[in-house]
Amino acid sequence: MMTPQRFLAEVVEPALRALDLDSPGARELLLGTALQETGLRNIPQEGGPALGYFQMEPCTHDDIWARFLAYRPDLAGKVKALLPDGAPLASDLLGYPLYATAMARLLYARVAAPLPAAGDIAAQAAYYKRWYNTPEGAATVGEYLANWRSAMGEGACAPGSPGY
């Protein structure tokens, strides 16, 4: 398992820069999403279809391609560039962490509501619950916050905040 700092530096930041969708708030939200979904483990879902650090389901992956990236060829090209052959498959969510991160970021990019501010982990937890896990999902805002505190330390600053 990677440390949160290493995951940010080696996976999240390069993926978001490649998409030109990088910001401190986006970095935190993606880190928090991966902490919540898998504890920063690149795994298939036990007993389910979800894949990778962000536990994205193949149908969600395919929907992003069909209903979002199909109408944004420049962005689609940036995403394909994260794969060695440029042919995106849902199974790539396991094999290519930058690609999985890009797809998780694009799930959030489809939302009209702006991303929560950097440093506002409680707002990011609520945003994750509403837009990534959905109201019907099993995760809770409290669980997200507990996972963040466990990984980052009690009272830890958010990445990119003063003193981090």
Overall description:
This protein is 55% helix and 0% strand. It has helices spanning 4-19, 24-38, 58-67, 73-80, 92-95, 97-109, 121-133, 141-152. The protein is mainly α. The model is unreliable at 160-164 (pLDDT under 50). The relative contact order is 0.18. It has one domain (4-152): Lysozyme. The longest helix is centred in the N-terminal third of the chain and has 16 residues, at 4-19. It has 8 helices and no strands.
Which structural class matches the secondary elements?
mainly alpha
Mean of residue pLDDT values: 93
Radius of gyration: 15 Å
CATH class: Mainly Alpha
The CATH topology annotation reads as Lysozyme
Low-confidence stretches at least 5 residues in length (pLDDT < 50)?
160-164
Q: Give the assembly state of these chains.
A: single chain
**Helical coverage, percent range:** 55-70%
Topology (SSEs and partners):
Blueprint (H helix, E strand, L loop, with lengths): L3 H16 L4 H15 L19 H10 L5 H8 L11 H4 L1 H13 L11 H13 L7 H12 L12
Helix pairs in contact: 1-2, 1-6, 2-7, 2-8, 7-8
Features:
disordered C terminus; globular; Lysozyme
Summarize the model shown:
With 164 residues, the chain is an all-alpha fold. The protein has helices at 4-19, 24-38, 58-67, 73-80, 92-95, 97-109, 121-133, 141-152.
